[in-house]
Design brief:
The protein has 479 residues and is of the alpha/beta class. The protein has 4 domains: 168 residues, Rossmann fold (3-Layer(aba) Sandwich), CATH 3.40.50.12160; 112 residues, Transcription Regulator spoIIAA, CATH 3.30.750; 86 residues, 2-Layer Sandwich (Transcription Regulator spoIIAA); 59 residues, Nucleic acid-binding proteins (OB fold (Dihydrolipoamide Acetyltransferase, E2P), Beta Barrel). The strands form 5 sheets. It has a 7-stranded parallel β-sheet, sandwiched between helices. The longest helix has 26 residues. The relative contact order is 0.09. Bound molecules: 5'-deoxyadenosine (5AD) and iron/sulfur cluster.
Length: 479
C-alpha cells in the first residue's frame, strides 16, 4: 500500500504557544457529496479510550459520519469503517490500544475495502506513530486531534486513492464550530468550552497532543447550552483540560466564572464542569458555584502530590499550603461540597517522607472521590528525562497505602449518607442487576435502587439504605 503523508506530528511544533494563523479547512462540499454516494449503506464502528475530551470527539465523528450516510454498528466485524480513538496519558492506556489492533488486523483481510483509522492522542507522538505504522501496515488512516473537521476528505481520499493517509498537524488551527454531533446520552451532555492546555505539567503529554489553549466564543458555548436545554437535556458538563483558564485567550472580557453563571442561568437542571487546575481557581468562581443551586456542589480538583518539592518538580505552580487554603475557602463557602482529586505516586525521586506528605494531605482534605495513578514516563515530556530511582515495588506499595487512606475517608462519608434523601438523575438500569436502576446524586455518588424504567432520564428522591465504598443502595421516596 502506498502512503500519502499530509502532515506528521512534531513535538516542538506542538509545544509552540505563539499565536498561529493556521486555519484548517472543514469538509469540502465535493468530498461530502462524493463520499455520500460512495458509502451508501455502509456501517461504521468507533472505539474510544481515555478522557471525556475523547468521548466528545467521538460524538462529533458520529455526527459527521451519520450526516454523510454511514450507519452505526456495535460490531467491528460488520463495519466498513473502524475508528480507534486513542489515549496516551499513561502507558497502560496505550497497551490497551496495541492489544485492540492485534484483534482487528484480521478484519482487513476479510474486507479489502475496510477503512481502519487511528486518531486521538497516541498518533500525535512521532515515535508512537512510527511504531504503529511499521507494526500495523493494515491501518490505512491516521489523523490528529486537530483534524476532525477534515474527516470527510480523509476518508474519501483513502477510499478513492487506495492509499494510506497520514494527516497529523501538530499546530491547532482556529476552533471549528458547527460540526454536527451525535450525542451518546439522551439527557446528559458534554460541552467543550476550551481545547488544549498551556500548563505543561512536567509529566503530562496532553499539552503536546491536544495543543495550545483555545477557548470557544462565549456566545457559541451559550447557544449550544441553550439548545441542549430546549432539547430536554437535564445535565451539562462543561469540558476542558483546564476549564478555569477559559477566556484567557479571547478578546472578550469573560472568564470561567462568567461563563458558569451564564450557563447556570439557562435553567439547565444540573451543571457540572471538569477539570479544574487549582492554580486558576478564583474566589469569584467559588462564589458563583455557591450562589446557583443548579451548579452541582462537586469539584474535581487534582492535587497530584502533597509535597512541595514534588509539586515543583511536577510544575504544578502551587504549594501544599496554597492548595489547602483553596480547599478551605471552597468548603467554607460551599456547604455540602464534594471534592475529588487525581494523585500520582512514585514520581521520579519521590522519597518515603515526600510520599507521606501526600498521605497526610489526603487525611486532611478527606476527599469524597479520587483517582490514583502510578507515575508513567511519557517520552518527550520534561519529567521523562529525570532519572527515576523509585523501584516499581515501592511505587506499588505507596499506591496501595494511599488507596487505603482514600477509601477510609470515602467510606466514612458514604456511611454518613445512610438514612438521608438525595436527588438522583436516573441513568439507566444497573449494569450488574437488571431489576435495579442507577444514577448519580448531585455530589456525584453512584446509587442503585429499585424502580420502573420509565424513570430513566428523570430526577428522583432516593433514601440511602446501605453504603459501599464506591456506590450506595437506596429506595425511591415519594413515588
Ligand atoms: N503518569 C501518571 N499519571 C499521569 N497523569 C497524567 N500524566 C500522567 C503520567 N505521566 C494523571 C494525572 C492527571 C490525570 C488525568 O492523569 O493525575 O490529572
Ligand atoms: Fe496535563 Fe497539567 Fe494540563 Fe492537566 S493541567 S492536562 S495534568 S499539563
Amino acid at each position: 500500500m502506498k502512503t500519502k503523508i499530509i502532515n506528521t506530528p512534531d513535538m516542538q511544533k506542538a509545544a509552540d504557544r505563539r499565536p498561529s494563523s493556521t486555519v484548517f479547512s472543514t469538509m469540502s462540499v465535493k468530498s461530502f457529496d462524493e463520499l455520500s454516494k460512495l458509502i451508501k449503506g455502509k456501517k461504521y464502528y468507533i472505539r474510544t479510550y481515555g478522557c471525556q475530551a475523547n468521548i466528545r470527539d467521538e460524538e462529533t465523528m458520529r455526527g459527521m459520519l451519520e450526516n454523510v450516510g454511514y450507519i452505526p454498528s456495535n460490531e467491528p466485524e460488520e463495519a466498513d469503517l473502524i475508528i480507534i480513538n486513542t489515549c496516551a496519558v499513561r502507558e497502560n492506556a496505550e497497551d490497551k490500544v496495541y492489544g485492540e489492533i492485534g484483534n482487528l488486523k484480521y478484519l482487513t483481510k476479510k474486507n479489502k475495502e475496510l477503512v481502519l483509522g487511528f486518531c486521538g492522542c497516541m498518533v500525535e507522538q512521532p515515535e508512537i506513530l512510527k511504531r504503529l505504522m511499521t507494526t500495523f501496515p493494515e491501518v490505512n488512516l491516521y489523523f490528529g486531534t486537530h483534524e476532525l473537521g477534515n474527516l470527510y476528505s480523509l476518508i474519501y481520499a483513502v477510499l478513492t486513492n487506495k492509499e494510506r493517509i497520514v494527516s497529523i498537524e501538530s499546530k491547532p488551527g482556529e476552533v471549528v464550530e458547527n460540526l454536527p454531533a451525535c450525542r451518546l446520552n439522551r439527557f446528559k451532555a458534554f460541552v467543550n468550552i476550551i481545547y488544549g492546555c498551556n500548563k505543561f505539567c512536567t509529566y503530562c503529554i496532553v499539552p503536546y497532543t491536544r495543543g495550545k489553549e483555545r477557548s470557544r466564543k462565549f456566545e457559541d458555548v451559550l447557544d449550544e447550552c441553550k439548545s441542549l436545554v430546549k432539547a430536554g437535556y437535564k445535565e451539562i458538563t462543561l469540558l476542558g483540560q483546564n476549564v478555569n483558564a477559559y477566556g484567557k485567550d479571547l478578546d472578550e472580557q469573560k472568564d470561567f466564572a462568567d461563563l458558569l453563571e451564564a450557563v447556570a442561568k439557562t435553567g439547565i437542571e444540573r451543571l457540572r464542569f471538569t477539570t479544574s487546575h487549582p492554580w486558576d481557581f478564583s474566589s469569584k468562581m467559588i462564589d458563583i458555584i455557591a450562589k446557583y443551586p443548579n451548579i452541582m456542589k462537586f469539584i474535581h480538583l487534582p492535587v497530584q502530590s502533597g509535597n512541595d518539592k514534588i509539586l515543583k518538580l511536577m510544575g504544578r505552580r502551587y504549594s501544599r499550603q496554597q492548595y489547602l487554603d483553596l480547599v478551605k475557602e471552597m468548603r467554607n463557602k460551599i456547604p455540602g461540597l464534594s471534592l475529588s482529586t487525581d494523585i500520582i505516586v512514585g514520581f521520579p525521586n519521590e522519597t518515603e517522607d515526600e510520599f507521606q506528605d501526600t498521605v497526610t494531605l489526603v487525611d486532611e482534605v478527606k476527599y469524597e472521590a479520587a483517582f490514583t495513578f502510578i507515575y508513567s514516563p511519557r517520552k518527550g515530556t520534561p519529567a521523562a528525562k529525570i532519572e527515576d530511582n523509585v523501584p516499581y515495588a515501592t511505587k506499588s506499595k505507596r499506591f496501595i497505602e494511599l488507596v487505603k487512606h482514600l477509601e477510609k475517608h470515602i467510606e466514612e462519608k458514604s456511611n454518613k449518607m445512610v438514612g438521608n434523601v438525595y436527588k438522583v438523575l436516573v441513568d439507566g438500569t444497573s449494569k450488574t442487576d437488571e431489576g435495579m436502576l442507577s444514577g448519580y446524586t448531585e455530589e456525584n455518588k453512584l446509587v442503585h435502587f429499585k424502580g420502573d424504567e420509565s424513570l430513566i432520564g428523570t430526577i428522583v428522591d432516593v433514601k440511602i439504605t446501605e453504603s459501599h465504598t464506591y456506590s450506595l443502595i437506596g429506595e425511591i421516596v415519594n413515588g
